[in-house]
Amino acid sequence: MCIDCGCGDAANTHKHSHDHSDDHDHGHRHIGPDGKEYYHRHDNDQSAHEHGRTIKVEQDVLSKNNGIAIVNRQWLDDHHITAFNLMSSPGAGKTTLLEKTLERLPQDGTVAVLVGDQETDHDARRLQGKAALVKQINTYRSCHLDAAMISKELETYEEAQINLLLIENIGNLVCPAAFDLGEHCRVAVLSVTEGEDKPVKYPVLFNNADVVLITKTDLIPHLDWDMEQCHSYIRKSGSRARIIELSARTGEGMGAWIDYLQTMKRYD
Amino acid sequence: MHEMSLAQALVDQVIELAENDGCQKVLSVDVSIGALSGVMRESLEFCFPVVARGTALEETVLNVTEVPLKAECRDCRSITNPEPFEVTCRHCGSMNLMVLEGRDFKLVSLEVE
Q1: What is the CATH number of domain A63-264?
Q2: Chain B residues inside the 8 Å CB shell of A205
Q3: Residues of B with CB below 8 A from A207's CB?
Q4: What average pLDDT does range A119-132 have in this prediction?
Q5: How many distinct structural domains can be found in chain B?
């Protein structure tokens, strides 16, 4: 009998899962009779176990989200809209970047913006009037946008002459990276005030990005920022993304970003 | 902490599979977490029972396997296990790698009765 949880006792067996074609000596976690979680090893004595039937699944847990994202992407393609998903930590300058981006894009009613925040419509109000359609999504408890949230908004574009959708995700370097929204291009935004090693501290977001924007470059003279080191960290995260350095405030580098947007646009 | 959303997605997925199967009870759920999946084991293990409470999975045990990153070097063709924060070939140091395994968060299997 296990001295920690009492399992293995005839009156106190527990059930667990795994294949038993191999040696039965193994470790595992389970909840004991006292409600606490235990991790321990079993030897080859099989008397302590009851076994159920195994159903093999091998499915991505995010398959539901990913399925909706595929439908979103198809809908966007059918309606000739290219979507960009901008992700960064809070305060990296996504909204200012969007403001200045919208000012530089043709004012022909073809751009829509979706901004995500847990609370408030501050960002949507800042951007109002700068794009044909600006909508705030409040996620309340959720720390990321998901494909279903985007799906609900798409019919708004049914009648509009939109060909570019810019999505500002929730400010968070971790969670948004896991959720495909149906975008065509994933944009990681990193400001120089955050430290050049963010890409290796949060590799998932950078590893998956199509383009990395290094923002607020006008502040570099006031910081100990090492641009070369930052590029090296981005590459160490496994990213093969295009890297664009810019300052939305002074406009330096904005031309390269606008050119990139226009190049990636699939439809005119 | 997106693990709460992930735990919810996992619980929904398992309940649907169990209903389709017609089993009485789900004893355990086996999942695998890739090193580059962005899922934190401890958070998921914390969130799963919280989300499962009051559902058919209230007593279900969650078994987590962590899957290291596995990548093939496009330059020297070696297959190595780099760290997520340093995706470089352990053989030749190249950064020109193709990730083979370690991106996914997967529901592997259920044990039911």
Answers
A1: 3.40.50.300
A2: 38
A3: 36, 84, 87, 99
A4: 91
A5: 1
- Cβ-Cβ pairs closer than 8 A, A with B, add up to 140
Report the residue of chain A nearest B29, measured CA to CA. A17
Using alpha carbons only, how large is chain A's radius of gyration in Å?
Answer: 24
Which among B89, B21, B48, B86 has a CA at the least distance from the CA of A200?
B86
**Does residue A35 register a pLDDT over 70?**
no
Q: Mean pLDDT of all residues in chain B?
A: 94
What was the ipTM of the complex prediction? Answer: 0.87
Tell if the CB–CB gap between A203 and B10 is shorter than 8 Å. Answer: no
What chain B residue is nearest to A240 in terms of C-alpha separation? B96
For B111, the closest of A52, A65, A146 (CB atoms) is: A52
The answer, yes or no, to whether residue B2 has pLDDT greater than 50, is yes
Set of chain B residues whose Cβ sits within 8 Å of the Cβ of A179: 2
Question: Taking 50 as the threshold, does the pLDDT of residue A46 lie above it?
Answer: no
Cβ(B55)–Cβ(B25) below 8 Å = no
Q: What H or E segment, with its residue span, contains residue A29?
A: strand A26-31
- Domain of B62, in residue numbers: 3-112
How far, in Å, are A196, B53, B104 from residue A201 at the CA level? 10, 33, 19
Structure-token pair, residue A107: 């004012």
Partners of residue B21 in chain A, C-beta under 8 Å: 55
**B32 has a chain A CB within 8 A of its CB:** no
| Nearest-angstrom CA–CA distance, B5 and A157 | 28
Q: For residue B26, what is the domain's CATH number?
A: 3.30.2320.80
Nearest to A144 by CA among A192, A208, A199, A87: A87
Cα–Cα distances (Å) from A90 to A32, A124, A186, A217, in that order, read: 41, 16, 17, 17
Chain B closest-CA separation from residue A252 CA (Å) = 29
| Gap between the Cα atoms of A260 and A81, Å rounded | 16
Flag whether pLDDT at A233 surpasses 50. Answer: yes
